[in-house]
C-alpha cells in the first residue's frame, strides 16, 4: 500500500513541480534560447493548455484501457517529455516538448484517484487524503526554491535543463513502484466502455486556441485584423461544442460534461468565479517572477526564496479555511479569501509603484503572505461550492470540467496578463515596475468582480470527484 501510494503521489508531485518550477526559469530561458516574450508565455502556458483540454479524455482512456495501464503509459510519456525538454536547443523545440509533457500528464493524473478508491476502504480515504495535502503543499512551497537553486547552481553546466531532469529519478521510482504494486486492471466489459469524444476535444481545443493565440502573439504581430476576427470566431466555435455535447447526450453517448449542469445559475456563476480566480493567480505568479528577475535583477534562487511567503500563506490558511467553513459557510469562506487575496495584491501594487526598482524581498513579505493566505481560504471551498446545487448524477461529469477549467484559467492568465505586462514594460523592458503594478491592479479588479459574482453561487457544498 505504501509503495502504491508513493507511485501516485510521485506522479502528482512531478506534475506540480513542473508547473511551479517553470515560472522561475523564464529570464534564463530568454537568455539561453533567445526566447521572445511570446515564446516564454507559450513555454509556461503550453503545458497547462494541453493538460486542460486533454484531461477529460485522459480520464476516459483509463476507463477504456485500464487505469493502471494508462497510469504507467502516462508516467513513461511524461519522463520522455521531460528528457526532450532538457535537450531542447530552441524555444520552439521546448514549447513542443512542453506540449508533449502536458498531454501525458493529462493521461497520468486522472488515473490516481480511481486506483486509490479501488485499493483503499472508503473509511480510510480521509486518512489517505490527509497524506496527499501536506505532500502537495510541500511541493508547491519548495518548487520555486528548488527551481531557483537548480538554475543558479548550474549543476554539470546544465543550468535550466536540470529543472526537467529532476523529474527523472522521481518518475523512475514511481514507475518501478507502479509496475510492482499497483493493482491489475479489472476485466473491462467492451460493451460498456465509454466512448472517447475526439470530435468534442478538437472543437473545444480550436475554440480555446482562437482566444489564447491572439492574446499571446497579437502584440508582437502588431494586432492585425485577422487576430480580432479569430477571437470573435471563438464564441460560435464554443456554440458548436455545446451543440455537439447536447447531441451526444441525447444519443446516449458520453459527453465531456452533462449539458443539464449549465441550466443551473449557481454552477455557471461558480465556473466564472473559478476561471477568474485561476486567471488572476496564474498571471500574478508569472508576473511576480518576471518582476523579481528582470526588474530587480534577482537570481532565480533569490526570486524563489522571495516567493516563499506566498506558499507559506497558502499552507497555513488551508487548514484555517477548513475550520472556518462550518462556522460561516463555504461561500462566505470563499468570498473572504477573495477579499484577502485582493488586499494582498493591492498592497503589492502600492509598494511596487512606490519603490519601483528599490523594492526588496523584505518589502514584499507582507503582500505575498497576505495573498497566499487569501488563496488558501479559496482552495478549500471553491470546488464543493461550485457543485453545491447539482444532482448527485451530475457531480462526476462536472468535476472533470472544473479540473479542466482550473488548468485552463491559469494558462489564460499567463497569456492575458503576461501580454499586458510585456506591452507595458516595452521592448527593452525599461518599465518593469510600472508593468507589474498594472497587472496587479487588473488582478485586484478581477478578484473584486469574482467576489461579487460569488453571491449567486450555492450556499451548499458537494465533494468533487478528483479532489
Can you tell me about this structure?
- The chain is an all-alpha fold.
- It folds into three domains: 1-184, Growth Hormone, Chain: A, CATH 1.20.1250; 201-255, no CATH class; 263-467, MFS general substrate transporter like domains (Growth Hormone, Chain: A), CATH 1.20.1250.20.
- Helices cover 80% and strands 0% of the residues.
- It contains 18 helices and no strands.
- Helix 1 (2-23) runs antiparallel to helix 9 (167-181) and helix 15 runs antiparallel to helix 16.
- The longest helix is centred in the C-terminal third of the chain and has 34 residues, at 392-425.
- The protein is globular.
C-alpha geometry: globular
User: Can you give the mean pLDDT?
Assistant: 86
- How many distinct domains? 3
% residues in beta strands: under 5%
Structural class: mainly alpha
Helix run count:
18
Poorly predicted regions are: none
Number of strands: 0
Q: Please identify, by name, the CATH architecture of the largest domain.
A: Up-down Bundle
| Proportion in helices | over 70%
**What pattern of helices and strands is seen along the backbone?**
HHHHHHHHHHHHHHHHHH
CATH superfamily of the largest domain: MFS general substrate transporter like domains
CATH fold-level topology of the largest domain: Growth Hormone, Chain: A
> What top-tier CATH class of the largest domain fits best?
Mainly Alpha
Largest sheet: none
Q: End-to-end distance, in Å?
A: 20 Å
Q: What is the radius of gyration computed over CA atoms, rounded to a whole number of angstroms?
A: 21 Å
Amino acid at each position: 500500500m505504501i509503495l502504491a501510494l508513493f507511485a501516485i503521489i510521485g506522479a502528482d508531485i512531478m506534475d506540480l513541480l513542473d508547473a511551479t518550477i517553470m515560472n522561475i526559469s523564464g529570464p534564463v530561458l530568454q537568455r539561453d534560447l533567445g526566447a521572445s516574450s511570446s515564446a516564454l508565455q507559450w513555454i509556461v502556458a503550453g503545458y497547462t493548455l494541453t493538460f486542460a483540454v486533454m484531461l477529460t479524455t485522459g480520464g476516459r482512456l483509463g476507463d477504456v484501457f485500464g487505469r493502471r495501464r494508462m497510469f504507467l503509459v502516462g508516467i513513461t510519456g511524461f519522463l520522455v517529455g521531460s528528457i526532450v525538454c532538457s535537450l531542447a536547443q530552441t524555444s520552439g523545440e521546448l514549447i513542443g516538448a512542453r506540449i508533449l509533457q502536458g498531454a501525458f500528464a493529462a493521461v497520468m493524473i486522472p488515473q490516481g484517484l480511481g486506483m486509490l478508491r479501488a485499493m483503499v476502504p472508503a473509511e480510510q480515504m480521509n486518512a489517505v487524503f490527509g497524506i496527499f495535502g501536506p505532500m502537495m503543499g510541500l511541493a508547491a512551497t519548495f518548487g520555486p526554491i528548488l527551481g531557483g537553486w537548480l538554475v543558479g547552481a548550474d549543476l554539470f553546466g546544465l543550468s535550466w535543463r536540470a529543472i526537467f531532469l529532476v523529474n527523472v529519478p522521481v518518475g523512475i521510482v514511481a514507475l518501478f513502484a507502479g509496475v510492482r504494486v499497483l493493482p491489475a486492471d479489472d476485466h473491462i466489459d467492451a460493451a460498456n466502455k465509454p466512448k472517447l469524444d475526439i470530435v468534442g476535444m478538437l472543437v473545444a481545443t480550436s475554440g480555446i486556441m482562437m482566444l489564447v493565440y491572439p492574446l499571446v502573439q497579437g502584440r508582437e504581430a502588431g494586432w492585425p485584423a485577422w487576430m480580432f476576427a479569430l477571437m470573435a470566431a471563438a464564441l460560435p466555435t464554443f456554440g458548436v461544442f455545446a451543440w455537439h455535447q447536447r447531441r451526444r447526450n441525447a444519443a446516449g453517448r458520453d459527453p465531456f460534461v452533462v449539458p443539464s449542469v449549465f441550466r443551473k445559475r449557481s454552477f455557471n456563476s461558480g465556473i466564472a468565479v473559478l476561471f477568474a480566480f485561476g486567471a488572476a493567480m496564474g498571471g500574478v505568479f508569472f508576473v511576480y517572477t518576471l518582476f523579481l528577475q528582470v526588474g530587480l535583477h534577482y537570481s532565480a534562487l533569490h526570486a524563489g526564496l522571495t516567493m516563499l511567503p506566498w506558499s507559506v500563506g497558502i499552507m497555513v490558511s488551508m487548514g484555517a479555511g477548513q475550520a472556518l467553513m462550518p462556522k460561516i459557510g463555504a461561500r462566505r469562506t470563499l468570498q473572504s479569501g477573495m477579499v484577502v487575496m485582493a488586499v494582498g495584491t493591492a498592497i503589492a501594487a502600492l509598494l511596487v509603484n512606490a519603490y519601483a526598482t528599490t523594492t526588496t524581498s523584505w518589502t514584499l513579505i507582507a503582500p505575498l503572505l497576505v495573498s497566499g493566505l487569501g488563496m488558501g481560504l479559496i482552495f478549500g471551498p471553491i470546488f464543493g461550492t461550485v457543485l453545491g446545487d447539482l444532482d448527485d448524477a451530475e457531480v462526476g461529469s462536472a468535476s472533470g470540467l472544473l479540473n479542466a477549467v482550473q488548468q485552463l484559467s491559469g494558462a489564460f492568465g499567463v497569456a492575458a496578463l503576461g501580454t499586458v505586462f510585456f506591452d507595458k514594460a516595452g521592448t527593452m523592458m525599461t518599465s518593469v515596475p510600472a508593468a507589474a503594478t498594472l497587472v496587479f491592479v487588473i488582478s485586484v479588479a478581477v478578484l473584486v468582480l469574482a467576489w461579487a459574482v460569488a453571491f449567486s453561487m450555492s450556499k451548499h457544498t458537494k465533494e468533487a470527484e478528483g479532489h
